[in-house]
Amino acid sequence: QVQLVESGGGLVQAGGSLRLSCAASESIFSIMAMGWYRQFPGKQRELVATITNGGSTNYADSVKGRFTISRDNAKNTVYLQMNSLKPEDTAVYYCYARRSHWSVLHWGQGTQVTVSS
Question: How far is CA 114 from CA 50, 97, 111, in A?
């Protein structure tokens, strides 16, 4: 059972930047994929970005060109650099980890990102 601890959320003005961190309790080399979902009030959780242990990345269309996901295997941590933030990015961001195609998703505690106009 991998544990995930998120940090980096907060309040930022439109056009600003934040970097989210997600630290895992075990080597992320052994984890197939990690990334973030976000959830708006009254809506289902949506995938924002993913990075695999092979280094491939995937982004939601709404964040392409603005967000960058990366990882530091030595620190067992993945990062989401969020630039050019918009009020529409305001949501709770949840880090996730997936060990394999047949494993359940493990979730971080969530961190609030609020972008003011």
Answer: 21, 24, 10
Which pLDDT band holds residue 115 (cuts at 50, 70, 90)?
very high
Q: Which two tokens stand for residue 73?
A: 């295997």
Please provide residue 98's backbone torsions phi and psi, each rounded to the nearest 5 degrees.
-135, 115
For residues 51 and 35, the answer to whether their CB atoms sit within 8 Å is yes
pLDDT of 1 higher than 90: no
Stated as kind and residue range, the H or E segment containing 18 is: strand 18-24
Look at residue 46 and give its three-state secondary structure.
Answer: strand
Contact 43, 59 (CB under 8 A): no
DSSP, collapsed to helix, strand or coil, labels residue 3 as coil
Closest by CA to 96, choosing from 30, 10, 6, is 6
Q: What gap in Å lies between CA 93 and CA 108, rounded to an integer? A: 9
